[in-house]
Amino acid sequence: MSEVRDLQVPSGREPLSAVLRGPGELTLERRPRAPLRPWEVRIRVGLVGVCGTDRALLSGALATRYPLVPGHEFVGEVIEVGDPRDAAWLGRRVCADINNTCLSRRRAAPCRACRLALPHHCQRRDVTGIHEAAGAFAEELVAPAANLFAVPDSVSDLRAMFCEPLAAALAAFERAPVGPGDVVVVLGAGRLGALIAAVARRRGADVLAVGRSPRKLARCLALDCGELVRVDDPALSLRARVDARTEGLGADVVVEATGAPEGLLRAQELVRPRGTIVLKTTCGLPSGFDLTRAVVDEVTLVGSRCGAFADALELLARDPLPVESLVEETYPLREVARALERAGEVFKVAVRVGPDA
Ligand SMILES: [Zn+2]
Ligand SMILES: [Zn+2]
Questions:
Q1: Which partner from 128, 155, 263, 323 sits 20 to 30 angstroms from 231, CA to CA?
Q2: What is the 67 CA–ligand 1 centroid distance (Å)?
């Protein structure tokens, strides 16, 4: 079991937050409530998912500006609004897009990206729990009202917690649409990869979900991620499996979600000419990527980051996709350090905030 010691919980009445003061330096602090600006609401956090980004922020592998309250996969309840015109949100269960943009702040002169309807690429954005905006490993957080999405009653907190990663999974196929007849390989069947594979299956594609850990692959069974394949399966190579489905041509779409630079090399081995490689991990270019082959095969490389919350919530409400079965362990906020550590071992970890925490 874990060697992580629980953090000291300071006394006081102000809301508790987990604060990253530097790489590896996580503390629990009580922070005074800042008054809301007119475009903001205050959310009492309910449940937060732990993801690889949180672990990368904690280790310092993903650079950010400190101090930072991490946590960006959350569901909570609106308890205060900065503008009385947003009063309808009070008491609503919500998720919130984590990109805080010119549009979120109702700026009179939005940046060019926002004017081009690319708000996720806002030139003045901050990102909740990741970059310059306090996140959800806290009893309360502040978000722009324009970023809120009401969670339907039929979607539990545990399912709603998957809104952000599921939106990111849907985004993988935004510029590389897949459907029946397509062969899709998802490299890295982990927290995000499993959702990506499940989305491709629901679009009717023939999916190979590839992972390293048999334990993690077993977790994917509940979601119907297609054929689950161990990357180093000695019985039949990955390329042979793809060839068998494609008359040796290669996969139509390969999604790289391994978190390792080598994943791109494998993706190139598997994709067909004029096929698409979707890049979901920000880990740099591996040495050995064959640019000549990329040109000759006319391969499309697509970067993919955040997705549409509305689509994710709609899917969670309509489709019984059992995302909640991916959660293996849940910890209270005061055990957030343990939660972050355990997320390196098990599939999905949740942090429950609130009175019973
Ligand atoms: Zn995440
Ligand atoms: Zn902008």
A1: 323
A2: 19
Cα(298) to centroid of ligand 1, in Å? 31
Do 323 and 296 belong together in one domain? no
- pLDDT at position 346 is 92
Distance from the alpha carbon of residue 313 to the mean position of ligand 2, in angstroms: 24
Is the pTM above the cut of 0.85?
yes
Shortest-distance ligand to the CA of residue 107: 2
Task: Tell me the CA–centroid distance for residue 102 and ligand 2, in Å.
Answer: 4
Q: What is the CATH number of the domain that holds 329?
A: 3.90.180.10
Confidence of residue 357 (pLDDT cuts 50, 70, 90): very low
152 and 27 in a common domain: yes
Higher pLDDT: 5 or 225? It is 225
53 found inside a domain: yes
250-280 tens-digit pLDDT = 999 999 999 888 899 999 999 999 999 999 9
Pairwise CA distance, residues 256 & 210, whole Å: 10
Report the distance separating Cα 157 and Cα 47, nearest Å.
Answer: 7
Which ligand sits nearest to residue 122's alpha carbon? 2
8 A C-beta contact, residue 158 and residue 191: no
Spatial CB neighbours of 208, under 8 Å, sequence gap ≥ 6 = 183, 184, 185, 186, 226, 227, 229, 238, 241, 242, 251
Question: Do 163 and 29 sit in the same domain of this protein?
Answer: yes
Answer yes or no: do 53 and 94 share one domain.
yes
Residue numbers of the domain that contains 275: 173-303
